[in-house]
Design goal:
By secondary structure, the chain is of the alpha+beta class. Helix content is about 40%, strand content about 20%. It has 21 helices and 22 strands. Helix 1 runs parallel beside helix 14, helix 5 packs parallel to helix 6 and helix 5 (about 115-135) packs across helix 15 (about 390-415).
């Protein structure tokens, strides 16, 4: 009998469609009934239209229904996937902008800190509503898979108060696994380059890791390669790495102080602890502006907003590419499809999942939502015993767990005093603000987000009154006028296009114009494992658009034709001398770059729209011709191409956004 999978928040199109296609790569799941629901009918209809075309083009027996009636979608569902953003980008903006008025500078603000705590307050009543409906109308023992942030808070609330079997899922462990692999490869080869005698290529499949902690603060407590433990050498490797030594300064400093590498990005991690963002003048020392994920103020808000603007403008073009083949080679690496496959077929799967602790990590509280190794087969999800975390790592996690527990209880009960205490105990908020500032900050966020906070309905009037009183008495403290220590403006689709032309003008002498492309290669679950093909594979000449003042964009749609796959693009850069310089680029999909045979950069988060100058890699150019190879994931046919420039200039010159 076909299973039924319900998506709540299905209008989160890129994620929904990716996971939907992943599930349909499993032969036993090709007749699945997908039930999409969302409160935004426009985005829901867009998602249903694109996914429906995929089913039709692949002649699959799968069924797809879409409705704004959540209970109808959940009726009889065996699995429920939560990918909502409660409050949307309007609420998200207040998560970033209001704390800035009190000096709290966040990169993402969706997990901890002031923004993450308030995001949790918006999520908790929604998650409990989802749980109520699941218990009442879904299949008995339906599994709730939560992808929505703040993941620990949501998963904690669903398991403890919603009484629904819930597992939180995140891909952060995978990204750090790749980074560690690159560091071990650097150490093992010690200067040898690909193709040289004795060079050893190492992939994440060769490096076994165990992670444990809480989501976004999970620690690689075991790293084994070739039968040896490599944790003691990771600091040396990260400090020597030409790219990550610049982009991961917070993570490297945490590794130096605590002895273990943390899963989350430089920008995310910097806002969970009290040391790196508490003084605006110091933030620049710890972050890198080549990508938002490295620490840009409000960086994720900007990227999400620009992506939405682009999507609205270009949906008709995206629709033309819908219906590409669904193949096992195109399957992504999100845990969700593999968990469902394992439970339904018995094929075992190992991953890292967010679950209630229950003694798995012995020096973290048993009620906490922890991220730990897990194994799945037809018998269910099994969580092994981890034991104690290293004492310092446990202390960092426990500080956040205290905040999460208070935030969950405050969100369930609408308790303003407990919410303010959670804000006081937050590591970064507490490092920046005094108690009265925190009280006013919380009141201001409650008022701004009132329509998404039904549990605080009776408390909003009091928050308004307190704010009015301090303003009337001249004691209002949210007076800082700042965009943040490292903020970039949010651009419209039109502004992005204008910026591209300006970027091409600035980089007129540096834009890489002449490329040769391969045919479309099969996609892979993990772009990090890919190596460039031999020289003869680059048969198709291509040229970036520069004539007539255009923007230097290399359009590759003629190569992929709207299909899923990988395109390798080779070009040359003539350097006048051997020097440290930069590769400056932007891409429409996940991308990896090699310079003279060595991996120079990897951006799994890249997606539409490509932004010129969004990414930078520090490169050691040799005198004369340098060989540059990009591999671009066509992003299910959505990637249009990339911008690229090469320069001997060692640092920024105003050309980056």
């Amino acid at each position: 009998m076909p299973i039924k999978i319900a998506f709540i928040g299905a209008g989160s199109l890129t994620f929904t469609r990716g996971l939907f296609r992943d599930i349909l790569t499993v032969p036993e799941l090709k007749d699945t009934h997908f039930a999409f629901s969302d409160i935004n009918k426009q985005y829901l209809d867009m998602a249903a239209l694109l996914c429906g075309k995929d089913i039709e083009a692949n002649k699959l027996p799968a069924k797809l229904t879409a409705t704004t009636d959540r209970r109808r979608a959940l009726d009889g569902a065996d699995y429920v996937i939560n990918c909502t953003r409660i409050g949307g980008l309007d609420a998200f903006k207040t998560d970033i902008d209001i704390p800035l008025k009190y000096g709290v500078d966040q990169c993402v603000g969706d997990t901890l800190c002031a923004g993450g705590i308030m995001y949790g307050q918006r999520n908790i009543p929604a998650v409990l509503d989802f749980c109520r409906d699941i218990k009442e109308v879904s299949a008995k023992d339906a599994l709730f898979l939560n992808y929505a942030n703040p993941n620990c808070i949501n998963t904690w609330a669903a398991n403890q108060y919603g009484k629904v079997n819930t597992v939180g899922l995140c891909h952060g462990v995978m990204g750090g696994h790749h980074q560690i692999t690159e560091v071990i490869k650097l150490l093992v080869n010690d200067g040898k380059k690909p193709g040289e005698k004795g060079y050893v290529n190492i992939t994440p499949h060769d490096v076994d890791i165990i992670c444990a902690g809480i989501n976004h603060q999970t620690w690689y407590i075991q790293v084994r390669y070739a039968g040896e433990e490599w944790t003691p050498r990771l600091l040396e490797g990260f400090q020597r790495h030409p790219l990550m030594s610049k982009t991961e300064k917070v993570r490297i400093d945490m590794l130096k102080r605590f002895g273990y590498y943390s899963t989350e990005s430089n920008g995310h991690l910097s806002e969970y602890v009290p040391w790196y963002r508490k003084r605006p003048r110091d933030i620049g020392k710890w972050i890198d502006m080549s990508s938002w994920i490295n620490g840009e103020t409000g960086g994720y808000l900007r990227v999400c907003t620009e992506g939405r603007n682009w999507f609205k403008t270009d949906f008709k073009e995206i629709l033309k590419t819908a219906g590409e083949p669904i193949t096992p080679q195109g399957r992504g690496h999100e845990h969700g499809s593999y968990i469902i496959e394992a439970l339904e077929t018995g094929r075992a799967y190992r991953g890292h999942f967010i679950v209630t602790n229950r003694g798995c990590i012995t020096n973290l509280p048993p009620d906490a939502a922890v991220e730990v190794p897990g194994y799945v087969d037809r018998n269910g999800i099994s969580i092994p015993f981890v034991g104690d975390l290293p004492q310092g790592c446990a202390a960092v996690c426990n500080a956040s767990i205290t905040v999460q527990r208070m935030a969950v209880d405050a969100g369930v009960n609408g308790d303003v005093n407990l919410l303010k205490q959670a804000m006081m105990m937050d590591p970064l908020v507490g490092a920046v603000c005094d108690p009265e500032e925190i009280s006013q900050l919380t009141d201001e966020m409650l008022v701004a987000q009132a329509k998404w906070l039904p549990q605080y309905k009776g408390a909003i009037a009091g928050a308004k009154s307190r704010l009015a009183a301090v303003k009337r008495e001249g004691k209002y403290l949210g007076t800082q006028v700042t965009l943040g220590a490292a903020r970039r403006p949010i651009l419209s689709a039109k502004q992005n296009a204008e910026q591209a032309i300006e970027w091409a003008r600035i980089h007129a002498a540096d834009v890489l114009e002449e490329f040769h492309a391969t045919d479309l290669h099969p996609t892979v679950p993990d772009l990090r494992r890919v190596e460039p093909p031999r020289n003869g594979a680059y048969s198709a000449p291509m040229k970036a658009r520069l004539a007539g003042g255009r923007d230097g964009f290399l359009d590759v749609r003629s190569v992929h034709g709207g299909k899923d796959g990988l395109i390798f693009l080779r070009t040359k850069y003539e350097a006048a001398k051997a020097a440290i310089g930069r590769l400056i680029y932007g891409a429409d999909g996940p991308v990896k770059v090699w310079v003279n045979g060595e991996t120079s950069d990897y951006r799994p988060e890249a997606t539409n729209p490509a932004i010129p100058g969004q990414y930078e890699a520090t490169v050691k150019w040799k005198k004369g011709k340098n060989d540059i190879v990009f591999v671009l994931d066509s992003n299910e046919g959505h990637a249009w191409g990339l911008y690229a420039a090469a320069t001997l200039k060692p640092d920024g010159n105003g050309e980056k956004r």
